[in-house]
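User: quick one - fold this with zinc ion bound?
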Amino acid sequence: MNQQTAQRNDTTANGDSAEDRVRIFDTTLRDGEQAPGFSMDRRAKLCMAQALETLGVDILEAGFPQASPDDFAAVEEIARTLRTATVCALARCQTGDIDTAARALEHAKSSRIHLFLSTSPLHREHKLGMSKQQVVETAIASIEHARKYCADIEFSAEDAMRTEPEFLIEVFSAAIAAGATTVNVPDTVGYITPSEMLERITYLRQHVRDAHKAVFSTHCHDDLGMAVANSLAAVSAGARQVECTINGIGERAGNAALEEIVMALKVRAPHFGLRTGIDTRKLHPTSRLLTQLTGQVVQRNKAIVGDNAFAHESGIHQHGMLKHRDTYEIMHPQDVGISETTLVLGKHSGRHALRQRLEALGHTVDDEAMESIFKRFKALADRKREVRDEDLEALALGQDPDA
Ligand code: KIV
Ligand code: ZN
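Assistant: Sure. Structure tokens for the protein plus zinc ion:
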């Protein structure tokens, strides 16, 4: 395995300053894939991995090789295939897991081993049966073991947000001293709020020993619907890696949605002053590829990639959009890979959008004809959810669309 793959803390792969560059760590193929309904076979995982690399993710978590022979094979194949993204494999803090992860990553151009260990009192007592000291010792021993294979080591303190902050300082300080190059602060159960996240990351960055030697990372779950807001709060506090998934898939209510984080950083660039390496025009195609591979669609009103994200039905909004697109859109559909805004014709639509659509279909109508068509259009829209082009053709020709 390549021992030279760890990124120095002050630059990213393409030489950007780490100060204003947020690394996107995609875990669609690990945390996303392990959620019910989203499992993918090797072929699907490889296909998705290639799309994620083209999208521009910095680190791609390909799987948990110890979990199953198929997951091992998927990680191995992805590691052999990818050229620019760092391929990451998850491992518990156990020698067997680490050795398996290292074998799966053997042929990667750039690789990372991601170790995780629970740190919260609940997990220490009920899941691990370990004392604080045992947790610290296990983390150190595992990081040192993983370092024999790989220079790029991430350590995650599972359930960090329900862990005593002072203990987190102890664990992360020990992890960095043992050689971790990224320290991840997961909100494993989606419990924290954005203001608490801002405070916690700030506190950790101030108190963890040699904090500057590691990249601080955030990994948020969406149980209370705050995963993206919490991730952005972490970034505001200095985290420079965000762990996220396409369409926000992941355990229970999911992980922070990659497309939402990336577009928030782009659209509100003056606010955050940060960049990612993502080609945002590939967001929608990548989202659609995932829905094809898993058979799970995204809801219509999903931010950025839902069918309604750039669609308008109400007459007032459509009128505004026809005058100036910025009235009701804060980003252009083309920026995320959607060809154009849709003005959906339905019972909320007005004359302006109707006339525009009729003209686009080649029907120029005078005001009198328009009044009659508009009345019949409204009656039809009350009966149907959406009025389609073929219905409009019939209306314009004086025919009954229902006939
Ligand atoms: O949610 C979590 O804590 C995880 C870790 C493995 C990082 O997925
Ligand atoms: Zn997770």
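One thing worth noting: The two ends are 69 Å apart (CA to CA).
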